[in-house]
Design brief:
The protein is elongated. The chain contains 9 helices and 24 strands. By secondary structure, it is an alpha+beta fold. It is about 25% helix and about 30% strand. Strands 1-2-10-7-12-5-4-3 form an 8-stranded antiparallel sheet. Strands 16-17-23-22-21-20 form a 6-stranded antiparallel sheet. It has 2 domains: about 250 residues, Jelly Rolls; about 180 residues, Alpha-D-Glucose-1,6-Bisphosphate, Chain A, domain 4 (2-Layer Sandwich). Helix 1 runs parallel beside helix 6 and helix 7 crosses helix 9.
């Protein structure tokens, strides 16, 4: 018997061609995990699989359907987990194409394939043996497998008798309608009630009897061994395999005594802020610094459906302004504290609020919006479906004007925040250049989002759900 080994620069891959011209079998070795990690992963994953609502244990291949087909949307794929234990499972085949990713146990796995057809075996059952090919996967390894429908296959731990499982896999059935399905099985698939055992066809009895009558020493099957850490069959590989089997037994035992299940953490998404090219048409901000300005930005946030869509625009704007003052974002407040410390020796204006809305903390000798918020200008439409205010202040180095606006249209609420800045001198232009990026990308969007969430979004604590295996 000849042996040939060679080094590959990428993922070691074995390929078995189909003599009949069908799809080949392809197995790729991706990575090798820590010593004993494979059997530990299989043991813990089996506990979770057993607790799944669609768990089924037949043909020595416990499995669970994680995701069924959505034929009404043109999706005929499905997703399963399955495991092969220490005793392996019988030779079988499926009508459809299969793709799966797996982690081998700490003894490794042997993948056995035969491309013989039913006609070949009817003519001579030994044709099944003649087309047999084996692929050896090392212990504790991540690997991928794909093969076409009608390919006979059997999986078992590497090296014969073993206390370690072969592997645990995540399998994608790329087309549950694929292949030659019987009428009854097709009805199961159409009803989204298929399972791995239902989609499985075992070997004809004549071939099963032939296999049982032959000893392991009589079979000399072409085999490809994949490996990463050491050449297959080398002393280093054998010592590493022994260590992995010993450590894997301990880690698997500990995993079986652990808690099955996991956790789900649910939290609502954040409000999305979009930067506009320029302030909205008709905005009062367009009337500010008409002689020229050095900076302009505009942001809009649209409230989700059923969020404060029944209130008037002026009432919503008052709530938004109050949120700017009462709940400034922590990150922005810290930045302002640092900024105030740095510019105070220069005699510049300081505020605990960032500049887009800092004048809300100013003197009340200006006109007031809603009887409490000092503003430079304000406007409310006739039917109170649009309301806006102009805020701002003048400093030694620059002047700024900000517009906060609310528009209510057909059950939709848009919240807008825009700013224009006009520099007074060279220092102002340098200052603006330093803060422009953080102001545009962080300060204004974060302030608008935080105010909107404070004013209009009910706050619910994230919900943590424990998912555990029911007690026997």
């Amino acid at each position: 018997m000849s042996h040939r080994s060679h080094v590959t620069a990428s993922f070691p891959t074995a390929r078995i061609s189909s003599p009949a011209g069908g799809l080949p079998v392809e197995v790729s070795l991706i990575a090798q995990l820590g010593h004993g990690a494979g059997s530990q992963l299989v043991a813990s994953s089996l506990l979770r699989q057993q607790a799944h609502a669609h768990f089924i244990d037949e043909l020595d291949e416990p499995s669970a359907r994680l995701g069924g087909t959505h034929l009404e949307h043109g999706d005929a794929t499905s997703l399963y987990t399955f495991a092969v234990g220490a005793n392996g499972h019988p030779f079988h085949r499926h009508a459809g194409h299969r793709v799966f990713t797996a982690v081998s146990g700490s003894a490794g796995a042997q993948l056995r394939f035969s491309t013989a057809t039913l006609e070949d075996m009817a003519a001579d059952p030994a044709n099944f043996l003649r087309s047999l090919r084996f692929i050896d996967v090392p212990p504790d390894s991540l690997f991928t497998v794909r093969f076409g429908g009608g390919t006979w296959h059997q999986f078992a731990p590497l090296g014969g008798a073993s206390t370690h499982p072969a592997f645990f896999a995540l399998s994608c059935h790329t087309n549950e309608l694929g292949g030659d399905l019987s009428e009854s099985l097709l009805r199961q698939v159409m009803a989204n009630e298929a399972s791995i055992p239902a989609l499985t066809e075992v070997l004809p009895e004549c071939v099963t009897q032939l296999m049982a009558s032959m000893s392991a020493g009589q079979l000399h099957v072409p085999t490809v061994a994949l490996s990463l850490e050491a050449a297959p069959g080398s002393l280093q590989g054998k010592l590493c395999g022994f260590a992995r089997r010993v450590v894997g037994a301990s880690r698997a035992a500990l995993a079986r005594f652990g808690r099955a299940g996991g956790f789900l953490r649910e939290s609502g998404g954040r409000q999305t802020v979009i930067e506009m090219d320029h302030p909205a048409d008709g905005s009062l901000l367009r009337d500010q610094f008409t002689e020229g300005f050095d900076h302009e930005d505009a942001f809009v946030l649209t409230l989700a459906a059923k969020q404060a869509t029944d209130a008037s625009a002026s009432a919503l704007l008052a709530s938004l302004l109050d949120a700017f003052v009462s709940h400034p974002p922590v990150g922005v407040s810290r930045m302002m504290a640092l900024r105030n410390m740095l510019v105070r020796p220069l005699g510049l204006r300081t505020s605990s609020l960032a500049c887009p809305v800092s004048s809300l903390l100013g003197h009340s000798d200006r006109a007031l919006f809603a009887g409490r918020f000092p503003v430079i200008d304000q406007r409310v439409s006739d039917k109170d479906r649009y309301a806006e205010v102009i805020l701002g202040a003048d400093d030694k180095h620059l002047r700024f004007r900000s517009c906060v606006a609310v528009r209510v249209t057909d059950g939709r609420v848009d919240l807008m925040l825009g700013t224009r800045v006009r520099c007074k001198n060279t220092f102002g232009r340098l200052y603006l250049r330093l803060i422009d990026g953080v102001h545009r990308r962080y300060v204004s969007p974060v302030m608008l989002r935080a105010a909107a969430e404070t004013a209009f979004v009910p706050r619910a604590a994230p919900r943590v759900v424990m998912v555990s295996m029911p007690q026997a």
